[in-house]
């Protein structure tokens, strides 16, 4: 599981204030989508309805996010603007997960029942 990093001043940032509450929610949901699926900030056009299924007419909200320069338009959909400056890259997340899995496996090997010291 990854976490979404947001500055505590985000609700007061001029870009964020410039969009509607629904567009702001789409932005937050977009961050969660990108971190959950390790997309490095990319949101494919075909996935838009899955990003925030409760938002009606999400394309209108996207227009606001692009206008406010919170999202950038690409040939495939959109990129969260400056995603990599605030969120971990997919490679960093994968490396951390591999290191954690290795640490857990080593702990389990050390603490396996068959590895217990004999009682005399």
Structure, described:
The protein is mostly helical. The protein is built from six helices and three strands. It has helices at residues 14-17, 21-37, 48-51, 58-67, 83-86, 90-110; strands at 42-44, 71-73, 77-80. The protein has a three-stranded antiparallel sheet with strand order 1-3-2. Strand 2 (71-73) and strand 3 form a beta hairpin. Helix 2 packs across helix 4. The protein is elongated. The model has no long low-confidence stretch (mean pLDDT 90).
Short description:
Helix 2 packs across helix 4. With about 120 residues, the protein is mainly alpha-helical.
**How much beta, percentage-wise?**
5-15%
- Main-sheet strand order equals 1-3-2
Query: H/E series, N to C?
Result: HHEHHEEHH
E-strand count: 3
Shape: elongated
- Major beta sheet summary: 3 strands, antiparallel
The protein's oligomeric status is single chain
Radius of gyration: 20 Å
Helix content: 40-55%
Instruction: Calculate the terminal CA-CA distance, rounded to whole Å.
Output: 44 Å
User: Helix/strand-derived class?
Assistant: mainly alpha
Overall average residue pLDDT: 90
Note poorly predicted spans. none
Number of helices: 6
């Amino acid at each position: 599981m990854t976490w979404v990093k947001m500055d505590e001043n985000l609700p007061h940032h001029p870009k964020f204030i410039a969009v509607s509450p629904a567009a702001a929610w789409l932005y937050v949901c977009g961050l969660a989508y990108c971190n959950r699926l390790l997309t490095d900030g990319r949101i494919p056009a075909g996935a838009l309805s899955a990003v925030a299924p409760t938002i009606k007419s999400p394309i209108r909200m996207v227009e606001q996010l692009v206008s406010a320069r919170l999202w950038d338009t690409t040939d495939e959909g959109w990129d969260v603007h400056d995603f990599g400056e605030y969120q971990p890259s997919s490679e960093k997340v994968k490396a951390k997960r591999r290191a954690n899995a290795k640490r857990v496996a080593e702990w389990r090997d050390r603490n396996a029942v068959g590895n217990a010291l004999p009682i005399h």
